[in-house]
Design brief:
The protein is α+β, with helices and mostly antiparallel strands and 471 residues long. 60% of the residues lie in helices and 12% in strands. The protein is built from eleven helices and seven strands. The chain has a seven-stranded mixed beta sheet with strand order 2-1-3-7-6-5-4. It is elongated. The termini are far apart. 27% of the residues are buried.
């Protein structure tokens, strides 16, 4: 805890100690830390930015140099260090490239222990711990999951001390900004780190939105749902489902850009409010020229943020249009596939109907021969001794077989008629049941809320089924 923790509002301690949305801190065994320093002369004109690494054993000596307003040794007495930055590389689910004891030593030396805990208590943070009699104000800015920065201005040396925890790409952007002349001129201002953060976020929105634009233009060329005569990009490759997934991903990225723009706008408001408060202090008049330049830069970023928001909203509409177009094309393909499947099913049904008609013919023929076959089989049983009266005289045999043939026909023909009559009655009953079902469904469709086209299609299909079943 800070030595003056009792003078800090308790809400900062509460959030810092009891709530953290970031992954637990994991430290490494690195023996060196990366730092940068900005030097100015007495007229607050930029001299240079110096980058170096410091061994863990020399961190205490480097921190003590701030009390004497001396960073990296300089032979020119009029030159002094105005800004010091400690760079801590961090990637999600990975460890910091700094040892735990070194991190605590630097946080304690910069009076930023509470700020380091509090900045990790929310997904986005823009705040300032109030100044006390023994400790300067501490600013903090964070954007989950890969960027936090805290800074404070040492009262005795007026050096601004910064701890930046970020991924490598963000650190490189900020280090490049430190090489810019306009940042070097403003490095002595307490809000210079906030300006650097605003510039970095504005730059990231433009760069990452361009990636979305490229993909949207390619998808527009693929779907043809656009009215740009100058569209020259090659159509996007891949199936429609993968392109729809990419468009959904673009929608998520655009939401992330809108979130980042919201954070940027809030950061700009925070800077402007703080500058107005500083300008009311007479002791800050000597920095008036620098504050005016800072205000001018913030206004430029504000204007860019407004235009960027308009651009993001415009791209979001285009993404939504292409996503709807892709879903429409997918639905058309599904409908065409369903039509093909229905055609194949109808072909199979017709083939089955022809087979069924053939089977009916075979059944009719079978029914014609079935009674005679049954009676012949019955009379052929040993129960009837037909051969006992057979003689060698043909006339006598005819006289004997004539009555017997009459008996065969007398039994067979009525049985055949009974068989056909049973089949006709069964077919008539089946048709009556189908007609009753058709009439019931017709009434339900007429009394329902289905559109007329759908109703007509359903009636046509049922009529076709009824006619097919009657064959």
């Amino acid at each position: 805890m800070d030595s003056v923790s009792s003078s800090i509002p308790s809400i900062y301690h509460y959030f810092g100690a009891h709530h953290s949305v970031w992954d637990p801190l994991k430290f490494s065994s690195h023996e060196e830390i990366a730092v940068s320093e900005v030097w100015q002369d007495e007229d607050k004109l930029a001299i240079e930015t110096k980058h170096q690494t410091i061994h863990n054993d020399k961190v205490s000596a480097w921190l003590d140099q701030g009390d004497r307003a001396r960073g990296i040794a300089s032979r020119v007495e009029s030159h002094r260090c105005v800004l010091r930055v400690v760079w801590i590389n961090y990637a999600a689910k990975q460890s910091f490239n700094i040892r735990s004891d070194t991190f605590e030593q630097i946080s304690r030396g910069f009076h930023q222990e509470t700020a380091q805990r509090c900045v990790r208590s929310s997904y986005a943070c823009i705040s300032c711990l109030p100044e006390t009699t023994t400790r300067p104000r501490v600013y903090m800015f964070g954007n989950h999951p890969n960027f936090t920065v805290t800074w404070s201005k040492e009262p005795s040396s007026e050096i601004i001390n910064v701890i930046c925890i970020a991924v490598r790409s963000k650190i490189e952007v900020l280090q490049d900004l430190l090489e810019s002349n306009f940042i070097q001129r403003l490095a002595h201002l307490e809000l210079a780190p906030a300006l650097m953060n605003a510039i970095m976020h504005s730059k990231e929105v433009d760069e990452r939105l361009e990636d979305v634009k490229v993909l949207v233009r390619e998808v527009e060329s693929r779907t043809g749902h656009h009215d740009f005569e100058t569209r020259s990009e090659l159509p996007a490759r891949g199936d429609l489902f993968s392109l729809a997934a990419k468009m959904s991903g673009c929608g998520t990225k655009i939401a992330s850009h809108l979130r980042k723009l919201g954070i940027l706008e809030e950061l700009n408001r925070f800077i402007l409010e703080d500058v107005r408060q500083v300008c009311q202090d007479s002791s800050s008049l000597q920095a008036g020229s620098g504050l005016q330049e800072l205000l001018s830069d913030i206004k430029i970023i504000e204007q860019r943020a407004v235009l960027q928001r308009n651009d993001v909203e415009y791209i979001r509409c285009r993404v939504q249009t292409q996503r709807d177009a892709l879903f429409h094309l997918i639905a058309e393909n599904d409908a065409a596939l369903s039509h093909d499947m229905a055609t194949d099913s109808r072909t199979l049904a017709l083939a089955s109907q022809r087979d069924s008609a053939s089977m009916k013919s075979l059944a009719v023929v079978s029914m014609f021969f079935l009674p005679g076959t049954f009676v012949a089989s019955l009379f052929g049983m040993p129960l009837f001794d037909w051969g006992s009266d057979v003689s060698n005289n043909q006339a006598e045999n005819i006289a004997i077989w004539g009555p017997r043939l009459g008996l065969f026909l007398a039994v067979t023909l009525p049985l055949m008629l009974l068989t056909f009559l049973t089949w006709v009655l069964w077919m008539w009953k089946q048709r009556e049941e189908r007609n009753h079902q058709f009439t019931t469904t017709h009434v339900q469709l007429d009394s329902g809320v289905l559109p007329s086209e759908v109703r007509a299609l359903a009636l046509k299909q049922m009529s076709s089924l009824a006619s097919d079943s009657g064959m």
